[in-house]
């Protein structure tokens, strides 16, 4: 199996077999993201994907989870995704879960019937990067969708039987827009009520448009304590049920987790302690993406 370029996957897919079905990201325009800048987006040849699945079968005795990479495998035509899922079922009968990234636009562009069919053929979980629920911030970061489109996409995926994991980025609005980011993100997540919500913390990569904006003084980054205040506002405004919350990524200053809204008060208490100066923040040198 030969991977093209650096391959990214969600932290929870660390033990999954990764199969690249696309190369890069079909959008590739978010101002903070450098993940796929060196890749020209393409959909891999279906025969090559099947060959790699057969190769993987020969290499691994037991495969419990498969993650379809790169940036948004869900952009594939429904017929192609189903062909891949049928091959997976045939070759890896022991596989318990297949998942992929999906942009809100990928979900919007598929019919409910298609999403249901894909789900029935074994793609069980979608990871959707939301980044922020603020329309102003979404525009600045060039996400290519509005908050309402994100809500529609998330609700649609869930209605069609998908498990949905939504990801946001703490600090993405900088000092000027942290409150808007927290409140609007809480509103969007509350409306979607995803199964999982993950919070990463912004890390600025050289060469990105965001890096240039910061160098020009157009945005000021949050300090760790301000990130915690933003997270407090976000959690405090959330109204979800049985939503697994994780903020334990390598980029986060403080590890947090729980099931919301059940653990809301507990998480808010921890955040309050950090806001009052009790507790240590992860040193910048140990943060990574
Ligand atoms: S953040 Fe996601 S959608 Fe935006 S460019 Fe990066 S991979 Fe693509």
Automatic annotation (TrEMBL):
Residues 9-239 form the Radical SAM core domain. Its cofactor is [4Fe-4S] cluster. Keywords: Iron, Iron-sulfur, Metal-binding, S-adenosyl-L-methionine. Gene3D superfamilies: Aldolase class I. GO terms for molecular function: catalytic activity; iron-sulfur cluster binding; metal ion binding. InterPro entries: Aldolase_TIM, BchE-like, Elp3/MiaA/NifB-like_rSAM, rSAM, rSAM_sf. It comes from the Bacteria. PROSITE patterns: RADICAL_SAM. PANTHER family: ANAEROBIC MAGNESIUM-PROTOPORPHYRIN IX MONOMETHYL ESTER CYCLASE-RELATED, RADICAL SAM SUPERFAMILY PROTEIN. This is B12-binding domain-containing radical SAM protein. The lineage of its organism: Bacteria, Bacillati, Bacillota, Clostridia, Eubacteriales.
């Amino acid at each position: 199996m030969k991977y093209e370029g650096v391959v990214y996957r969600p932290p929870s897919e660390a033990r999954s077999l990764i199969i690249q079905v696309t190369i890069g990201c079909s959008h590739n325009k978010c101002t903070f993201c450098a993940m796929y800048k060196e890749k020209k987006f393409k959909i891999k040849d279906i025969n090559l994907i099947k060959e790699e699945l057969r190769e993987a079968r020969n290499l691994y005795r037991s495969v419990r989870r498969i993650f379809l990479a790169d940036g948004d495998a869900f952009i594939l035509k429904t017929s192609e995704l189903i062909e891949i899922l049928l091959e997976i079922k045939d070759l890896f009968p022991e596989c318990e879960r297949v998942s992929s990234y999906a942009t809100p636009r990928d979900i919007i562009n598929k019919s409910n019937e298609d999403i249901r069919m894909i789900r029935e053929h074994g793609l069980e979980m979608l990871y959707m990067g939301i980044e922020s629920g603020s329309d102003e911030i979404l525009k600045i970061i060039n996400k290519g969708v509005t908050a309402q489109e994100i809500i529609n996409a998330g609700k649609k995926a869930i209605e069609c039987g998908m498990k949905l994991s939504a990801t946001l980025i703490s600090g993405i609005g900088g000092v000027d827009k942290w409150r808007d980011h927290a409140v609007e993100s809480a509103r969007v997540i509350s409306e979607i009520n995803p199964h999982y919500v993950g919070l990463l913390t912004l890390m600025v990569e050289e060469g990105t448009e965001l890096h240039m904006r910061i160098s020009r003084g157009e945005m000021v980054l949050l300090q760790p304590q301000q990130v915690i205040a933003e997270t407090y506002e976000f959690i405090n405004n959330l109204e979800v049920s049985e939503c697994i919350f994780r903020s334990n990524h390598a980029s986060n200053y403080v590890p947090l987790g729980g099931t919301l809204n059940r653990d809301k008060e507990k998480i808010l208490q921890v955040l309050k302690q950090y806001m009052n100066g009790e507790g240590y923040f992860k040193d910048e040198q140990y943060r990574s993406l």
